[in-house]
Amino acid sequence: MTFSFFDFIWIFFIFSSLQPLWQRRRTETRRFNTLKEIERRGNSRVILLVHRQESISLLGIPLSRYITIEDSEQVLRAIRLTPPDVPIDLILHTPGGLVLATEQIARALIRHPSKVRVFVPHYAMSGGTMLALAADEIVMDANAVLGPVDPQLGNFPAASILKVVEDKPISEIDDQTLIMADLSRKAISQVQRFVRTLLNDTVPQRKVDPEKIDSIIDAITTGRVTHDYPITVEEATEMGLPITVGLPLQIYDLMELYPQPQGGRPSVQYIPMPYDRRPALPEPKGRPLPEGARTSSL
Predict the structure, then answer these.
(1) Tally of CB atoms within 10 A around 95
(2) Helix H or strand E encompassing 145
(3) What digits encode the pLDDT tens for the residues 129-176?
(4) Cβ distance 79 to 285 under 8 Å?
(5) Which of 80, 172, 177, 262 is the most buried (most CB within 10 A)?
């Protein structure tokens, strides 16, 4: 049996089309095994909520991901399938998302009888912070950040809409702005009430000093800072949140299996650590070279 040149071309195309499927299956297997290892070490149920920028089909169009109703359905199912005596470890990497979906997940977390921990390897902003507040312990990388949970109405912060109504005479404000201001008051009140519910959680034990709850609510819900303001580990600890610094190495390994889709050359490159220090070259012996001959190029 002989193969022609075109037969080799067909074989090449077949292998090229199957390679992405094989790589995807291999990555999914590694993700599953890593999750199982984290569960085994922590004797807990591990739930992963990671939002990256995805690509649509073969077109390569970037699509931002955030917490959706579909996410809440899956997370609620995972919590429902977890026995009451099994702790939950939630790994978060998200810019936030829908208020309804976020509140559903957060309520389910505070109702779980056993301990709930949230791990933040990089950032958990807005709705992600809301989920972190539902945990009994927030475990963060030393450089990870949380964010404010002040409500946003469309493209505008609710607190900024209220500021317009406060600073301008009522006769100079249009009806739409007044309606938005009314909605802003309601939204801020609703978020503050829910955050207070999360911080007052006492199952399985109280996690926040009651005397610090009011100051925490004021700091993260009233629009004192911009919505993308990074709340560092130090600032969150000073607020009184139950912060622990230091993630298990397996979580970093797991995040490596959820890379950001790359288009073209990578924007960051480095030699992975630990970096082997190479021994210095011995000094040449004999007559020294002239000064002009010492220059070299790579």
Answers:
(1) 17
(2) strand 145-146
(3) 999 999 999 999 999 999 999 999 988 999 999 999 999 999 999 999
(4) no
(5) 177
Tokens of residue 63, six digits: 């699509």
Alpha carbons 120 and 96: distance in angstroms, whole number? 13
Q: What is the pLDDT of residues 243-262, one digit of tens each?
A: 999 999 999 999 999 887 65
Report the C-alpha gap between 92 and 125 in whole angstroms. Answer: 10
Separation CA 175–CA 181 (nearest Å)? 10
Token match 């990671």: residue? 50
Chain centroid offset of residue 115 CA: 21
Short-list 123, 33, 47, 133, CA closest to 90: 47
d(CA 240, CA 202): 15
- The verdict on whether omega for the bond into residue 83 sits within 30 degrees of 0, i.e. cis, is no
Q: Report how far apart the first and last C-alpha atoms of the chain are (Å, whole number).
A: 51
Residue 264: CA atoms inside 13 Å, Cβ hemisphere, count?
1
Find how far residue 182's CA is from the centre of its chain. Answer: 32
